[in-house]
TrEMBL record:
Alphabetized UniProt keyword annotations: Membrane, Transmembrane, Transmembrane helix
Name of the featured protein: DUF2956 domain-containing protein
InterPro entries assigned to the protein according to its UniProt record, in alphabetical order: DUF2956
Residue intervals passing through the bilayer: 73-92
Pfam families, per the entry: DUF2956
Length: 93
């Protein structure tokens, strides 16, 4: 009502001022609805991005055990090569 009275024109009736105040209130309510909808959309987008990052992180975690299995094979491979090298040196020398 304060805003409506501040923009009131000379000769404007009280009813007209009330209608202006109602229009302003309706506009403010509409603006708030729009802002809430935008905030919800931003929140949904943020959650989707977080899910995508979590899924990517989960994929990398799943890949790590297979690389660890390869790392566990390496010492045995080196042991076998060293023993075959010792045996070759012993029998050929």
């Amino acid at each position: 009502m304060k805003v409506a009275k501040s923009i009131q024109k000379p000769g404007q009736t009280k009813e007209q001022t009330k209608l202006v105040a109602q229009g302003i209130e309706k506009g403010i309510a509409e603006y708030k609805k729009q802002q809430k909808a935008k905030a919800r959309d931003r929140d949904k987008q943020r959650k989707q991005e977080l899910k995508a990052k979590a899924a990517a992180a989960a994929d990398t975690v799943v890949d790590e055990p297979s690389s660890k299995a390869n790392n566990a094979l390496l010492p045995w491979l080196l042991l076998g090569l060293s023993w075959s090298g010792f045996a070759g040196y012993y029998f050929l020398a």
